[in-house]
Amino acid sequence: MANFIIFLSVLTLKGKSKKLFFLLLISALLIISSLYIFENRHTLMAVFFQTVKLHDKAIEEFTKSAESNPKDAYAYYQLGLMYKDRRDFDMAEDVYERLLRVFPDHPDANYDLGYVYREKGLYDKAMAQYEKALKVNPKNVYAYYDRGYIYRKRGKYGKAMEEYKKALKIDSKYPYAHYDMALIYEELGMKEKAEEELKIYHKITD
Questions:
Q1: What pLDDT score was predicted for residue 37?
Q2: pLDDT score of 154
Q3: Alpha carbon distance 89, 96 (integer Å)
Q4: Within 10 Å of residue 142's Cβ, how many Cβ atoms?
Q5: How far apart are CA 206 and CA 145, in angstroms?
Q6: What is the pLDDT of residue 60?
Q7: How distant is the alpha carbon of residue 127 from its chain centre?
Q8: Based on CB atoms within 10 Å of each CB, which residue in 9, 29, 82, 99 is the most buried?
Q9: Tens digits of per-residue pLDDT, 136-145?
């Protein structure tokens, strides 16, 4: 009988220990979650505002996040992306340059900064930036296409075609490369080639 009572006492203690352990575990998880939410509150709010299309509010919160944590690559990149989508290229340039000072191998920011330079007509800076983007990601279709775009704008059709073909080697269904190649063939009087590329473009986009 005494042994049975001792056995029940041990079970009770074990039960209490398990409950205590789970209570401590839940408390620790709640504390960690609260700290994470507090430290990332601006980014989390920005994502919420992005989701509900309140873009001004999202920009405001991403800016706060980037200012409070200069190593928050996500906040910086999203901020740059939002300015780029608004075609506020001066602000986008500033944000991407700050991001790349901290994360020089950020693949998306390297390309996007090149795109910003391209849209501002800073073609030499854009080409240098695309070179960096391709070193980080040699399969960046957009970088090859944009280089082709700049060569086409400069009348260097041979080099433009080389870049478009590099893009199509990575993604044969990238429509804009086919379209721009059609423009070049048209410019060179190669109407059959131009029509062929346009057919491919319409087949992809339709």
A1: 43
A2: 96
A3: 10
A4: 19
A5: 21
A6: 83
A7: 20
A8: 99
A9: 999 999 999 9
Structure tokens at 137: 């990601």
At residue 114, what is the residue type? G
| CA–CA dist 148, 124 (Å, integer) | 13
All domains of the chain, ordered by start, with CATH? 156-206 (1.25.40.10)
